[in-house]
Design a protein that fits this description.
Pfam families: ALGX (PF16822). Helices cover 33% and strands 18% of the residues. With 325 residues, it is of the alpha/beta class. It has one domain. A 7-stranded mixed β-sheet has the order 4-3-11-9-10-8-7, with helices on both faces. A two-stranded antiparallel ribbon has the order 1-2. Strands 5-6 form a two-stranded antiparallel ribbon. It starts with 6 loop residues before the first strand and ends with a helix.
Length: 325
């Protein structure tokens, strides 16, 4: 029996996710909504996040990246119809009065170049789209002195003619499409730590972008990845964890001025692990325990290299996670 396709081709060569566990098309057409209980759980989690951040004088933004088909409804297969009320709107209602939510669909739809924000063969926004999104986030941060958006003079985009995205690779013969690549001119930001874990459990740290800039803690799924270099360019320190939850221990460890959490719309179907329960080290341990002996030894050597005092705790997290339970 053949497996159902994981990607479908829409108009003008645009490719979209399908048959995924989050039932993206059911969300798109409004058939999949949250129950009253799920909405209540979202409201409670966001209320707890908001209260925690306010208590600790942290500027927090709950950021939701729109599904690609919601930004390009004119490119989806003709039988698909975008519903006026969807699951994302239920979460947006739950966020009101609890956290400062940034639901980016309306912002992106309002941009004349919106179709340039995403690659035809990938679910994610690309480097060009991420630049616009980061500037929108920076403008929305109400901190003393603000954060200056990244100007056109500071970025250089070039088009990579060959790029196989996470959707185009799902075909028997992968479809190669172009994708913009970015260089930041005169950036001082450098990655000073990376535990080299893929997805959940991943931590990377960037320092030196702007010595007078803020400290930023970034939680998020794969959509957060394209934002890192831009945010690091304006921050004195940026710590990125791959998770849709908030790890309070890391917030206390870093004491940042700004906390951002970024999630893709389709993941809103599930409420993430609660702020008072989550530890990224649970994900880290699972990943590290799966390594074969050769990979374990490489990781131990890599993490054992001299770390700054500010970063040593993250190396210790990984090394301790490799110990037998």
């Amino acid at each position: 029996m053949s497996m159902p396709p994981k990607a479908i081709i829409g108009k003008d060569g645009w490719i979209f996710l399908t048959n995924d566990t989050n039932r993206t098309w059911d969300q798109y057409e409004g058939r999949l909504l949250l129950s009253d209980g799920d909405v209540a759980e979202w409201r409670q989690e966001l209320a707890q996040r908001g209260a925690f951040m306010r208590k600790n004088n942290i500027h927090y933004r709950f950021i939701v990246a729109p599904n690609k088909e919601c930004i390009a409804p004119d490119k989806v297969p003709s039988e698909m119809r975008k519903a006026p009320f969807r699951l994302v709107h239920q979460v947006e209602d739950a966020a009101k009065g609890n956290v400062h939510g940034m639901f980016l669909e309306r912002f992106i739809l309002g941009q004349a170049a919106r179709l340039s924000f995403y690659d035809k063969g990938d679910t994610h926004w690309n480097a060009y789209g991420a630049w616009h999104v980061v500037n929108h986030i920076m403008k929305g941060l109400e901190i003393p002195g603000g954060i200056r958006p990244i100007s056109e003079d500071e970025v250089h985009f070039r088009q990579a003619e060959t790029h196989v995205g996470d959707l185009s690779i799902k075909f028997d013969q992968a479809v190669s499409t172009g994708s913009p690549r970015v260089s930041l001119r005169n950036t001082l930001a450098r990655c000073t730590f990376d535990n080299r874990i893929t997805n959940h459990g991943h931590v990377s740290i960037w320092e030196g972008g702007n010595p007078d800039g803020p400290s930023i803690l970034l939680f998020g799924d794969s959509f957060a990845g394209a934002l890192v270099r831009y945010l690091a360019h304006r921050a004195r320190r940026l710590v990125r964890l791959h998770t849709n939850s908030i790890d309070r221990e890391i917030v206390f460890r870093e004491r940042p001025e700004i906390v951002l959490s970024v999630t893709i719309e389709r993941f809103l179907r599930s409420v993430p692990t609660r702020i008072h329960e989550y530890s990224y080290r649970t994900d880290l341990r699972k990943k590290l325990q799966m390594l074969d002996e050769e990979a374990r030894q490489r990781t131990i050597v890599d993490l054992g290299k001299r770390q700054s005092a500010a970063n040593a705790a993250y190396a210790a997290d990984a090394l301790c996670s490799m110990e037998p339970a």
